[in-house]
Amino acid sequence: MKILYIGDIVGRIGRQAVGRILPGLKKKHRADLVVANAENSAHGSGLNENIVKELNQAGVDIFSLGDHAFSKEKDVSACFTSQLPVIRPANYPPGVPGQGVYIQSVKGENIAFAVLAGRVFMDKDFDCPFRVGDMILANLAKQNISAIILEVHAEASSEKIALRHYFNGRVAAVLGTHTHVMTADSQLSAQGTAYITDIGMTGADEGVIGVDKENILKSFLTQIKYPHVIPEKGQAIFNAVLLNINLSAGRALSIKPIRETREIH
Known about the structure:
Blueprint: E1 2-6, E2 8-9, H1 11-29, E3 33-37, H2 49-58, E4 62-64, H3 73-81, E5 86-87, E6 101-106, E7 109-117, H4 129-140, E8 147-153, H5 157-167, E9 173-177, E10 187-188, E11 194-196, E12 201-204, H6 213-222, E13 234-246, E14 251-264
Parallel strand pairs: 1-3, 2-12, 3-4, 4-5, 7-8, 8-9, 9-11
Antiparallel strand pairs: 1-13, 6-7, 10-11, 12-13, 13-14
Helix pairs in contact: 1-2
InterPro entries: Metallo-depent_PP-like, YmdB-like
GO molecular function, one term: metal ion binding
Keywords: Metal-binding
């Protein structure tokens, strides 16, 4: 089973990059399933039903969210109400709309996807990702699940690495998102857990983590906060990882980083 997992899609330019690059990649690598973090896809923050449909037409099957999941609450709540394949962090407090675990059936096999948000240097008080992860795995153990893919949406590399060790051998993959910068540490453990600290982003390549550089530089130079402007055109970067999963064992066989660029007009 091959799963393509795309890093944080930022704005229209990121969506355009997915539309231009994903169909060819999906065909080239014969990906069975495509997952994308889409919490920044609505002009840099949030997700809505129209964007889910747009990205689905480009080939994305499942959409994950992070700490910006509810930045446009009404829009994302409509996605949950429509029962679209959208996953928010599972360690939001009880009673929060949406789902933190999504089970997808492919070729008769059930693959579970879950998102956990980190707590170090994050601006929200999420529940403990370690303990919530334990509860998720205990619940999935009662079901017919062939493999579990865990996304860790977190700021601190140390927290992601700790979660990698904690869930090593218990899930097929632990994939970091949130920082928008792909790390060079993709690896496969002896226990069959694929890992990367951060997949990176899909968005404007010539700014600062997807945002136009001019206001970011002004903010650093003056310590005055200027609005984040998401470029509409220019060079876009597409970051993802390709997982190869042995479903009979619930283990990863490989993880391959993918980085491509396109000029968006």
